[in-house]
Amino acid sequence: MNVSELMTDALGRIPDLVHASVDGLSDDDLAWRPHPEANSIAWLVWHLTRIEDDHVAGVAHTTQVWDDGWADRFALPLAVGDHGYGHSPAQVAQVRAGADLLGGYYDAVSARTAAYLARLEPDDLDLVIDERWDPPVTLGVRLVSVVNEVNQHVGQAAYLRGLVDRR
User: Fold this and answer.
1) For the chain (length 167 residues), average pLDDT per consecutive 10?
2) In b/e form, how buried is each residue of 125-144, taking b as 16+ CB within 10 angstroms?
3) What is the pLDDT of residue 1?
4) 3-state secondary structure (DSSP) of residue 79
5) From the CB of residue 162, how many other CB atoms can be counted at a distance below 10 Å?
6) Which among 6, 94, 115, 157 could bridge 44 via Cys, Cβ 3.0 to 4.6 Å?
């Protein structure tokens, strides 16, 4: 297995998990939070998708899928470039979206990510992409960060889905 195949497999598992977390739920179910300071399924899936979109577009030197009309479709009362990092409970509550919108956006991001990953070569992972950190961040480190972020949040969304289904 080469690096491209490894990263594609790691991130290629997420679409099914995203859809299992959102499909069949109402907008109210997706916005439900077990506590006023907790995240909702809608926020978690939107955020994990925004992070993957932002980070992969950054390393691929492309525009974000979000800018291809998805920001308009979501019509959130947030800054267009917002991806949820550091959101307050009030901001989390502002992220309301339907299952089709959330799943569709993730599918579009996943497709663009897969296209980028297909081009990776092993030496690409050592490329320094962010010198603001000590040590500087390489492409490999950034991609592992994306894998960790999306897996953590899709797991949280799946857990909340279980709570929603049992309410």
Assistant:
1) 90 97 98 97 98 97 97 95 94 97 98 95 92 93 96 98 96
2) beeeeeeeeeeebbbbbbbe
3) 85
4) coil
5) 10
6) 157
CB atoms within 10 A of CB 3: 16
- What's the rounded Cα separation, in Å, for the pair 28 and 17? 20
Q: Are 117 and 1 in contact (CB under 8 A)?
A: no
Q: Which pair of structure tokens corresponds to residue 119?
A: 């081009």
Q: Domains, the chain, ranges and CATH? A: 3-166 (1.20.120.450)
SS (H, E, C) 2-39: CHHHHHHHHHHCHHHHHHHHHCCCCHHHHHCCCCCCCC
> CA nearest 92: which of 11, 145, 34?
34
Structure tokens at 60: 């691929």
Q: Strand, coil or helix: what is 63? A: coil
Instruction: Find out whether 2 and 118 touch, Cβ atoms under 8 Å.
Output: no
